[in-house]
Amino acid sequence: MAEVKICAYPTAKSLPLYVGIERGFFERLGIEASVHFTDNSRAQRDSLATGATDIVHLAVDNALSMVDDDGQDVVIVTGGDSGMNELFVQPGIASIADLRGKRLVVDAPDTAYALQAIKILGNHGLVAGQDYAIDAVGRGELRLKAMGASRDAAAAVLNPPYSFTAEDMGLVSLGNTADLFGPYQASGAFVRRPWANANRATLERYLAGYILSLRWVLDPANRARCIAMLSERPGLTAATAARSYAALVDPRLGFTPDAALDSVGLESTISLRRETLGSSTGTARQASGYVDLSFHAAAVKLAGATQS
Q: For residue 107, with 0-12 CB atoms within 10 Å meaning exposed, 13-18 middle and 19 or more buried, which class applies?
């Protein structure tokens, strides 16, 4: 049995990890999946860089940051979803233009969904640091808490389950980022390239287990158990768990079947990073320089053989 150390967020998107462990998909393929959670993306990136973690499930923009800004030899090995993100604001804010002079709360100010928000606000004439302030507070749960604690925390990008809790709190969605921004490769899995090359069979078996878990999640026959697991593990109410599951399996905005990578979305993610951060990013490279899908291709074949 090969141990694989995984780092993620304790959100609805981690459902395939819960399923893979509970249903034995990882174990069937000889993988002992060890999952730990963090409060922010910086901690996850540091965990991967130091070898404390083998694989991270997170917005892949963080992999771009590790390569371009930190000089880390990191490679994206799967896709995941387009974000399921919405831009939420405090009651009384009727438009993006109304965020002038307000505070945007983010995870890290220079990666992923913060950059989406900066671009969206920029499209409406608002400049970060000039027309509004950015406050880095951490993952979605912490962004939601910040908005609940003070109306001064005017806006944040949130996804399930926190987007549904935000609605219940009376916060207002100004729209889904897929509509406000366009194609975007959000979550995915990435690893250190030397570890991947040295542990190819282990990585392929892990990804095969993840793919089998994801297929199980997307099967309508397993809806009730998936909702129950979301209630048990992230501790969601039954209603929020049901709404979260519906978002996860949404064919347009939810999980991508077999965790396939959206090449158009990835190009958009790369372009967004360079546009918003400019010269602060590292040497420009093609999307292929950040990705190695050979592990995923082998995993899909292995998952097919295992499933049969």
A: buried
CATH class of 2-82+185-307: alpha beta
Q: Which of 111, 123, 56, 139 is nearest to 270 (CA)?
A: 111
CATH superfamily of this structure's domain 86-180: Periplasmic binding protein-like II (3.40.190.10)
Provide φ and ψ at 223, rounded to 5°: -55, -50
What would the mean pLDDT of 206-230 be, rounded to a whole number? 98
Checking if the pLDDT of 90 tops 50, the result is yes
Residue 97 reports pLDDT greater than 80: yes
In the predicted model, what is the mean pLDDT of residues 17-38?
96
d(CA 17, CA 6): 9
The first and second tokens of residue 122, run together, are 């920029």
Tell me, yes or no, if the two domains 2-82+185-307 and 86-180 fold the same way. yes
CA–CA gap between residue 257 and residue 108 (Å, rounded): 28
Instruction: Calculate helix-pair angle for 61-68, 263-277, nearest 10 degrees.
Output: 50
**Mean pLDDT over the full length of the chain:** 93
**Domain-wise residue ranges, the chain:** 2-82+185-307, 86-180
Per the CB < 8 A criterion, the answer to whether 182 and 2 are in contact is: no
